[in-house]
Structure prediction request, 274 residues.
Amino acid sequence: MHMSEVPGQNNAEREARAIGEAARESDSGQRAGFRGRLIVATLLALGLTAVLASWLASAFGAQLDPVQFRVYLWENALYFLYFPAAFLIFVLARLLTGYGYLRRGPACLAGWGVAAGLLCASLWGFQIVRPEAIVWTELSVGGGSAAGESLWLPQRVAKARALGLREQRPVLYYLHADWCHSCEDFESYVLGSPYLQRDLEPFIKVRLDVTDIHRWQDYLDRKLGVSAVPSLIVRDRAGRLIPRPVIGENVSLRAVRSVLEAASVELPTKAAVR
Prediction:
């Protein structure tokens, strides 16, 4: 009698264990499903926040810096940030799928969809631009020789200022040197950026060769407030220096534009020139 009851007890125990394991698996699946939905909701919230931020910035006229790397230009910083955000969300969705936190199906596709949407938004504000050629003002100083550009530096600075006063135009001095490796890129991708061409139109634009920087360092420090290359120094229509020189190639286009705008303001009356 005792021996006949053992199989029944064992069956009951196995059934109880099976029920417990099924309950644990169900609970684990529910937790995994909740985590997956939470992650997908977070991804969607991030994507919608990015799109909403872009729309608000556009609707209210927010001034956002463009981002340019050589010939690659994003209209503003948000469009640029969408690209790394899309990449990170795609990688995150892929990892979560691989580790089982997201199931292959709608949840996984939702994460990838957010990444694809951000990538499309980034490409919407992206363009490949060609540098614009700068038309420099010719100043006949030092007999017009090639060496005169460097040897007659103070005379070129003074003549450009006089020309600006006579025509009531702002003046832009661009300092460059033969040994400056970044000057060519600065001239092509900063001054030549399509983003700045309208701002550069009213300026008398003069290139100043400071290859012999040691010879002119004291003069540049005293008269123009800068002795590094590449650099931009501007005078307003009254001949006054704008005390914000642009130095180095790693400058934002917004910084250059703000200096140009400050110098190109129309004179309300005939101002005294100091």
User: Anything to note?
Assistant: The longest strand covers residues 171-176.
